């Protein structure tokens, strides 16, 4: 049974940084593109960033470009989300997800394309 476990969330002041991690188990990690989504209170879940299975391609939502970097370590079966220059608008529960052989922008930016999801980690940015 595949499992994704996020960590690294917390409370940070505006302008600060956080690094989220998502450890995967029970799946052939390199065959899965990995994505990060977030959901703010009373709002829909939205796409943040994604990375293909080999790590050769990355995709970002316009709202986070230049501030957030996604990366992965296939040997450690872990995907990361480095978040810098955080803003109060970044406050949300952040979820990682796995997309089997996903490679296109459309697939990787669409939540329903993902097979497995983590339980989420809370990120709160104070002003």
Unreliable residue runs = none
Summarize model confidence as the mean pLDDT: 96
Report the helical percentage.
Answer: under 10%
Q: Assign the structural class, choosing from mainly alpha, mainly beta, alpha/beta, alpha+beta, or little secondary structure.
A: mainly beta
- The helix count comes to 1
Helix/strand order: EEEEEEEEEHEE
Quaternary status:
single chain
**Largest pleated sheet:** 7 strands, mixed
The percentage of residues in β strands lies in over 45%
Q: Gyration radius, to the nearest Å?
A: 13 Å
What distance separates the N and C termini?
40 Å
Q: Any idea what the shape is?
A: globular
Tell me the total number of β-strands. Answer: 11
Q: What would your notes on this structure say?
A:
- With 127 residues, this protein is mostly beta strands.
- The chain is built from one helix and eleven strands, in the order E-E-E-E-E-E-E-E-E-H-E-E.
- The strands form two sheets. Strands 2, 4, 5, 6, 9, 10 and 11 form a seven-stranded mixed beta sheet that branches. A four-stranded antiparallel beta sheet has the order 1-3-8-7, with no helix packed on it.
- A hairpin with a 6-residue loop joins strand 5 (46-51) and strand 6 (58-60).
- It is globular, with a radius of gyration of 13 Å.
- It starts with a strand and ends with a strand.
